[in-house]
Design a protein that fits this description.
TIM Barrel; eight-stranded parallel beta sheet; about 40% helix
């Protein structure tokens, strides 16, 4: 399944973009939505939504309130970084479970890709937090980094693993064929939310060429 990652600041347009796919990630932080915006988008969209609010622009208290608002208004998934504070993890994960919202516990590394033993330890730590899905996003400096990320799919557990950057593009294409529940794309090239991200049109064209059905 393809997941469109959205950072649209106009909430009506965000809903329109989200409804173009079965699954969409609303980057609450990049959209600069307040609680009213979040409640509107998550209650009105027809597609399943992932609530994501990275810590760069908001305090822990604001993040908690924004994510709880998304969950209460129908978020299908919530993304909580393993790097988050204990307050965020201990508040959001149980709250999501109580509201039938699945938890994605994620790990991000914007510098490099750790060795396989460290990656496996991180995955175990994420599942130990009661994750329904674990997301691993590292930075590929070599093709070997991308190969290492894809090797994580030897497990049968729900895992979204990808490498950011141009050398990591292959992981965004191959992961869905190896068992990832979904892969992330941008709505269009002007709205990329991560380095190396492909657009919805590009991803659809690639899978059309290979006659792969999502």
């Amino acid at each position: 399944m393809i997941c469109i990652s959205i950072q649209e600041k106009h909430r009506g347009k965000a809903i329109s973009l989200a409804n173009a796919a079965q699954l969409a990630e609303i980057r609450i932080d990049l959209s600069h939505f307040n609680e009213k915006d979040v409640a509107f988008v998550f209650s009105k969209a027809d597609s399943q939504l992932i609530a994501t609010c990275r810590p760069a622009y908001v305090s822990d208290k604001e993040r908690i309130n924004l994510l709880k608002t998304a969950i209460a208004n129908g978020a299908a998934y919530v993304d909580v970084e393993i790097e988050s504070s204990q307050e965020v993890k201990k508040t959001i994960i149980p709250y999501a479970k109580a509201h039938n919202c699945k938890c994605i516990v994620s790990y991000h590394n914007f510098n490099d890709t750790p060795q396989i033993d460290e990656l496996e330890e991180i995955i175990e730590a994420c599942f130990a937090l009661d994750a329904d899905i674990v997301k691993i996003a590292t930075t590929a400096k070599t093709m070997q980094d991308s190969a290492r990320i894809l090797s994580l799919y030897q497990t049968n557990r729900p895992l979204v693993a990808l490498a950011m950057g141009d050398l990591g593009k292959i992981t965004r294409i191959a992961n869905i064929t190896l068992g990832s529940p979904f892969t992330f794309v941008a709505a269009h090239k002007e709205s990329l939310t991560a380095q190396g991200q492909l657009t919805l049109e590009q991803m659809n064209n690639i899978f059309r060429i290979y006659n792969y059905s999502l």
